[in-house]
Design goal:
Length: about 375
């Protein structure tokens, strides 16, 4: 697996360089902060010569030791803001203990990760020790590979447009972002624009919420009016735009999505992606937005899934950074900045539940995570 190093002033710019150099199938190996910005180490794909065939029938006893390993990962991994040690481009170690390798691969599959991603995460790892310690090493590698943007729009502001399929939770995400922003800023610094003219009651819903917060909500009837609307609103630190849900026509013709920002240079695009979508649909949604530069993903409905591997695999394969995670309907709560370690730990807890030790609603939660049943 040949590695390449990319440096840029921020995570978004570095990921763009990765896509341009290695294509959409690039694999993020590590992502760390540096004095000058960020550094990403990525690979163009998997070198199958580095990987041995897995032993058949090694997926038994998948749950054994998984909970213990995940607890260790949750406690031992450094926070996502900490800079990991620089990755070194060394030759892959010989892989031993095929049965142990099969057990680790089986546990990764329980998380719902793509098969080729499971193989890449284990590439070059010497599985001569017990499978639990090996799994911890692999999960740490996964944690470091998940792209997370350091940009918090509720702190830095800007003109932010939320895309997403119908039912993804865009309107609720707008409300949560607004509430988070108002914890440290005045309501006069915030404006909300409703550009969703397809869903009945979309504007009225946002208007009701805006009145509760004392925030002005403006309706945008045509995409070409955005520039004039922003000029009318005046100087705002943060403008949140709720647009209509992505349709099948949008997925077939992505060019339909770029009309709104034709004359607005400062517009930033974020994708609201529900974790409940099928993996192939996630890829179609992200691919439809290739014409715009995504500032980040807001992952919703993580409380309603049996596995998080599909969403994690999509983030890695599509090289789009994670910005926020929503795990419930409560607007003051159930919304937090993305943390790769938390996401991996939650994915492991769900995998443990799938192994026959409970359900997502009753499995022991990771520290700071309380499963809820409400949609977000």
């Amino acid at each position: 697996m040949q590695l390449k190093r990319f440096k840029a002033r921020d995570n978004h710019s570095a990921l763009k360089k990765v896509r341009e150099a290695l294509g959409p199938d690039a694999v993020i190996i590590s992502n760390r902060k540096t004095e000058d910005g960020v550094e990403i180490i990525a690979s163009a794909g998997l070198d199958q010569a580095e990987i041995e065939a897995q032993a058949g029938g090694a997926e038994k006893d998948l749950a054994g030791g998984f909970d213990r390993t995940l607890a260790q990962v949750s406690e031992a991994l450094p926070p996502v803001s900490a800079a990991p040690a620089p990755a070194r481009e060394t030759a892959a170690k010989p892989v031993r203990n095929r049965a142990g390798r099969g057990q680790v691969a089986g546990k990764l599959r329980r998380m719902g990760l793509d098969e080729d991603l499971c193989q890449e995460l284990m590439a070059g790892i010497d599985i001569s020790a017990d499978s639990d310690s090996t799994l911890q090493t692999v999960l740490e590698r996964l944690k470091l590979a998940i792209p997370v943007t350091p940009d918090d729009v509720t702190e830095n502001g800007g003109v932010v447009l939320l895309h997403g399929p119908t039912g993804a939770g865009k309107t609720t995400a707008i409300a949560k972002l607004a509430t988070r922003f108002l914890r440290q800023h005045d309501a006069r610094d915030l404006a909300i624009i409703c550009a969703d003219n397809a869903r009945i009651g979309a504007h009225e819903q946002l208007q009701t919420f805006g009145k509760l917060l004392g925030v002005k909500v403006t309706r945008l009837r045509r995409p070409g009016e955005l520039k004039n609307t922003l000029r009318f609103l005046g100087k705002k630190k943060l403008v949140l735009i709720d647009c209509a849900g992505l349709t099948q026509a949008d997925l077939r013709d992505p060019g339909r999505l770029t009309g709104m920002d034709a004359d607005v240079e400062e517009l930033r695009h974020f994708l609201v992606l529900p974790a409940t979508l099928q993996r192939a649909t996630m890829d179609r949604v992200v691919s439809a937005l290739r014409e715009v530069v995504l500032g980040g993903v807001i992952l919703t409905k993580t409380d309603d899934v049996m596995q998080l591997g599909g969403a994690i695999s999509c983030l890695l394969r599509q090289a789009v950074p994670l910005a926020f995670v929503s795990d419930g309907q409560s607007i003051p709560n159930n919304f937090k900045r993305a943390d790769a370690a938390d996401l991996v730990a939650l994915g492991g807890k769900l995998a443990l539940a799938n192994a026959g030790q409970g359900t997502p609603a009753t499995a022991a939660p990771m520290p700071g995570y309380t499963p809820v049943s409400a949609h977000c």
